[in-house]
Specification:
Blueprint (H helix, E strand, L loop, with lengths): L1 E5 L3 H12 L3 E5 L3 H8 L10 H10 L3 E4 L2 H6 L3 E4 L14 H13 L4 E5 L7 H15 L7 E5 L9 H6 L4 E4 L3 H15 L6 E4 L1 H32 L3 H9 L20 H14 L5 H24 L7 E5 L14 H11 L3 E5 L4 H8 L4 E2 L3 H5 L4 E4 L11 H7 L4 E4 L6 H6 L3 E3 L5
Parallel strand pairs: 1-2, 1-4, 2-3, 4-5, 5-6, 7-8, 9-10, 9-12, 10-11, 12-13, 13-14
Helix pairs in contact: 1-3, 5-6, 9-11, 9-12, 12-13
The structure holds nicotinamide-adenine-dinucleotide.
Nicotinamide-adenine-dinucleotide binds next to α1 and α5.
């Protein structure tokens, strides 16, 4: 099928590359000229495991190309995916200006039947707004009779595992009331569920839009639940990792998303929880659980930062080594990363920070500037610091050389924000150890 991706970020590029891999003809559109230039040279502007290889191969085999011209993408495609950002607006709701601008651009250039697919995470009612915006564009061009469909197809990929998630989705959701469009999208997605037999769920547009927010808010709630209990474990002298096992082995609960940490972050959970709360408010309804999950997360990020701050008598004379800047491993994305929040808190107290992250340094530097020191490797960050805080659970941080860390640190203290280590073992190496909820 002939398809264009409007917005070539994490979602647009992964979707475009994976659809091309199945033999579709894909045009990836982005208004960012630098991004398109890089992509044309076979470089990928983001880090996502396996993405570069997939992009380069499909480009070389002629199924994937890149352009800045939205009209080029739209005119040469039957299906137009909207994959632009939906950041948080001042009042917590989703800022739809990027999505609706794209809708306006589509209305200004399309001249035959198109299927417009909202893949961006958008609040209930957005498909109607997109339809109205495109219709207004067509009307103004005297093309009122031109037909098109607007479909909701929320994306569930996880950064760091995005290719596998897209190639083997647990479910695909298609929101449409048009049987013909549903059949076409089923055809498009069938190759991805052929071996797994996982479902392609066809539903009404509003339910599809809400399903995405409901999923993210539920997962965020699970994280906040275990984090809240972790604080209680610290007070009670219990160990949250045992409690997690005790809970997670119950198959009604399951172990996933029950790892205590410094709070959730990233480009989706925070803004999606906030947007769902805002949607609910605008319908005169309060989502008590989501609001609590949000509040618990704010407290969790403060809690971890405070653990570090409280340990030192003289913050102005303290340097902390930070391992991990991205909001999770295997990505370069630092948007709403708890690491940045913790670092800001340390800096506010006058502490100095030496940080290392395998992929997130460049993006972190755009936000933190030169207020911290960035090091070439993990051990260099530790050299001469008064303690080590681990905030992102990159594999390379999981079995470090403890003797080397001890030699390099001025004071042997570890703040293990992801509970990567066995507290007894670390203490056995002569460290003072703080985990989250380890009693
Ligand atoms: P992103 O910021 O990485 O990419 C968006 C891209 O859209 C940018 O490259 C930007 O230049 C481009 N763009 C904006 N306006 C444009 C226009 N008018 N024409 C052409 N290009 C335009 O965003 P993302 O992380 O890919 O997220 C996109 C959407 O998908 C969001 O709604 C997000 O919530 C949702 N989502 C993201 C993830 C994720 O893990 N990143 C997962 C699922 C869903």
């Amino acid at each position: 099928m002939k398809i264009c991706m409007i917005g070539s970020g994490y979602v647009g590029l992964v979707t475009g590359a994976c659809l091309a891999e199945m033999g579709n003809d894909i045009i990836c559109v982005d208004e960012d000229a630098a991004k398109i230039a890089l992509l044309e040279q076979g470089e990928v502007p983001i880090y996502e495991p396996g993405l570069r290889e997939l992009i380069v191969r499909n480009r070389d085999e002629g199924r994937l190309r890149f352009t800045r011209e939205l009209a080029d993408g739209v005119k040469n495609s039957l299906i137009c995916f909207i994959c632009v950002g939906t950041p948080q607006d001042k009042d917590g709701s989703a800022d739809l200006s990027y999505v609706l601008r794209v809708a306006g651009q589509i209305g200004a250039c399309m001249d035959d039947y198109k299927i417009i697919v909202d893949k961006s995470t958008v609040p209930v009612g957005t498909a109607e707004k997109v339809r109205d915006t495109i219709r207004a564009g067509l009307d103004s061009r005297g093309l009122s009779g031109l037909e098109f469909d607007v479909v909701s197809n929320p994306e569930f990929l996880k950064e760091g595992n995005a290719i596998q998630d897209f190639m083997r989705p647990e479910r695909v959701i298609v929101g449409t009331d048009n049987v013909r469009t549903a059949t076409l999208l089923k055809e498009l997605y069938n190759p991805f569920v052929r071996t797994s037999n996982n479902p392609i769920l066809i539903m009404d547009v509003r339910s599809a839009e809400l399903s995405k927010y409901a999923s993210n808010a539920f997962l965020a709630t699970k994280v906040s639940f275990i984090n809240e209990l972790a604080i209680l474990c610290d007070k009670l002298g219990a160990d949250i990792s045992h409690v997690r096992e005790g809970m997670g082995t119950d198959e009604r609960i399951g172990p996933r998303f029950l790892l205590a940490g410094p709070g959730f972050g990233g480009s989706c959970f925070p803004k999606d929880v906030q947007a769902l709360i805002a949607t609910s408010k605008s319908y005169d309804h309060t989502l008590e659980i989501c609001e609590a999950a949000w509040k618990a997360n704010q407290r969790q990020m403060r809690y971890f930062a405070q653990k570090i701050i409280d340990f030192y008598k003289n913050p102005q004379k303290t340097t902390i080594a930070v391992w991990g800047l991205t909001f999770k491993p295997k990505t370069d994305d630092v948007r709403e990363s708890p690491a940045l929040y913790v670092i800001e808190n340390l800096l506010n107290k006058g502490m100095r920070v030496r940080a290392f992250d395998p992929k997130g340094m460049e993006n972190a530097q755009k936000l933190l500037g030169d207020r911290i020191t960035y090091t070439q490797d993990a051990y260099e960050a530790v050299a001469g610091a008064d303690g080590l805080a681990i905030i992102t659970e990159w594999n390379m941080f999981k079995s470090p050389d403890m003797a080397r860390i001890k030699d390099l640190l001025k004071t042997p203290v570890i703040f293990d924000g992801r509970n990567l280590f066995n507290p007894e073992e670390v203490r056995g190496h002569g460290f003072t150890y703080f985990g989250i909820g380890r009693g």
